[in-house]
Amino acid sequence: MLAEALGHLVKGIVEHDESVEVRTVQDRRGETLQVHVHPDDLGRVIGRRGRTARALRTVMGALADGAGVRVDIVETDAT
């Protein structure tokens, strides 16, 4: 559910919404949601001084209800 919600939010921000992919990764630190976006959209998702990324992390933290979810933004190859 969290991955779908994050994907929906990010697709509303970017121009290349077909390139948005959210992957869930489990490691010893817990669950991490990796957001893969087109290189042209990386700045849009991060925002000025990281404000957009911070807002996305805040929303995901609220939806996770204290589960400790991390959000990483990753650039995807433009091919």
Question: What is this structure's SSE topology?
Answer:
Elements lengths: L1 H10 L9 E7 L2 E8 L4 H5 L4 H14 L5 E6 L4
Parallel strand pairs: 2-3
Antiparallel strand pairs: 1-2
Helix pairs in contact: 1-3
Order of helices and strands: HEEHHE
Overall residue-averaged pLDDT value = 91
CATH topology: GMP Synthetase, Chain A, domain 3
Number of domains: 1
CATH evolutionary superfamily: K homology (KH) domain
CATH class categorisation = Alpha Beta
Account of the 3D structure:
This protein is of the alpha+beta class and 79 residues long. The chain has three helices and three strands; from the N terminus they run H-E-E-H-H-E. It is globular. The longest helix is centred in the C-terminal third of the chain and has 14 residues, at 51-64. The chain has a three-stranded mixed β-sheet with strand order 1-2-3. It has helices at 2-11, 42-46, 51-64, and strands at 21-27, 30-37, 70-75. 15% of the residues are buried. Helix 1 (2-11) packs antiparallel against helix 3. It has one domain: K homology (KH) domain (GMP Synthetase, Chain A, domain 3, 2-Layer Sandwich), CATH 3.30.300.20. A hairpin with a 2-residue loop joins strand 1 and strand 2 (30-37). The N and C termini lie far apart (28 Å). Its main location: cytoplasm. Belongs to the KhpA RNA-binding protein family. A probable RNA-binding protein. Keywords: Cytoplasm, RNA-binding. It is found in: Cytoplasm.
